[in-house]
Amino acid sequence: MSHPAESTAPLVLDGAALTLEDVLAVAQRRRGIVLSPCPEFRARIERGQRFLAQLLEEDGVVYGVTTGYGDACTRPVAHDDIDDLPRQLYTFHGCGMGQTLDAEAARAVVLVRLVSLCQGVSGVSVELLERLSWLLEHDVLPLIPEEGSVGASGDLTPLSYLAAVLCGEREVIDNGVQRPAAEALAERGLAPYRLKPKEGLALMNGTAVMTALGCLAFARCAYLAQLSTRITALSVQALDGNPYHFDADLFAAKPHPGQQEVAARLRLDLHAPRTPRNSPRLQDRYSTRCAPHVIGVVEDALPWWRQFLTNELNSANDNPLVDASVGKVMHGGHFYGGHVAFVMDSLKQATANLADLLDRQLALLVDSRYNHGLPSNLSGASASRLALNHGYKAVQIGASAWTAEALKLTMPASVFSRSTECHNQDKVSMGTIAARDALRILTLVEQVAAATLHAAAQGVELRSRVGNTSAIPERLSAFLDELRRDIAPLEEDRALDTDLNHLCTLIRRRHWSLYDA
Fold first, then answer.
1. If you ran DSSP here, which 8-state letter would residue 384 be given?
2. Is residue 72 predicted with pLDDT exceeding 80?
3. 63 an active-site residue?
4. Annotated catalytic residue, options 63, 69, 286, 336
5. Average pLDDT for residues 137-164, to the nearest whole number?
6. What is the mean pLDDT of the segment spanning 129-156?
7. Rounded Cα–Cα distance for residues 226 and 222 (Å)
8. pTM for the model
């Protein structure tokens, strides 16, 4: 999918707000970043570092700087050991498990943590921000295990891998190749960084992983809502359905804006006039007739999902915060990921419903009892070969399996708070687990979308052979022409896994411009 309005200039980080699209552009290497050279910005960052240094000289008490971490906050750290404390923090948190984040997600994590530190209230140095910027500039990314965060006190364990690689420890993805961080730094003549007193805590005590994954999930979900609308239009056309279920006056009576937008897109795709004419059937089945009501939930949720994620992205989600301008250290709980968890849990449910909708459409398309004259299982084989061919029979079974798995994963993660860390972290968000679940569900929904898209395109073309229907509407015809450049029709049975995987790749890349201006 093209990004015609997107700037190619580096994104300047100076504490100003970023958009979710900014995160996506950097994560996908469509845009670089640069730390602002503005003296005012750099002075604001350094004031916090100097204020902390002053407190240390005056024997001030700052959590995680002069004390132990978590429930050990009552245990003072000897002055001579303060400089060693940050390394202890990322070292004992080096217990992540499971799969590792891919390069796109790792870039997003680095950027999101950098944006938080650029707010100027974390007590870090400009040098630390420059080191984080260097990782993105050289595409040397921390290898971050997915599992181990409860979402408060931030993404401690996964973010420990970011802190460690700055210091030349653990593994990195170096321009796509996994290798030791020490080698990647040495090869470029860069000495390992030594974290200053609060910098280990500032890097790790925040919501960067869940927020980064949330930004990626949001973009995929928004595209799937549009693609589900296009697939629905193809399904209605293939089933010789009633296009007047999407009448503008009908939807004015139930004015959810996103739902109305989905109906309007379907009217455009199906070229349905404002005044309904006689239609083949009075009422189609719910999976087509009620598609705006299902897809519209996603469309109507996107604005507030965006708001929650954008606020989290541009927040100082750290603890403690340091306001050098008033000489204040503020101890709180901004590492808590409740807003991200709520977005991800609701996104999971709304997106899994897209799979359920498309799976039901596919079930209608392949069933000769309900597809209004199309061949059984949408087989494109000749009459003499029809008995040997089974068309989309197995694809429909697969789509049903993927849908079931997506629906199974919709259990909200945020309700499974566990008391951890000697009951210091006794109420936690589970935001990172919710985000990981959301990404898995999105992958499954994309697979269902690929299957139903493949079949619906076949159904539209078979319908035109059957006759007794109007010509394929112009917008759908143009989309089918574009689709056929990548995917051939199904005539004789063939293994469709290559086709489906290719379609999933195109969906992930947002390959087709659908309804955006």
1. G
2. no
3. yes
4. 63
5. 96
6. 96
7. 7
8. 0.95
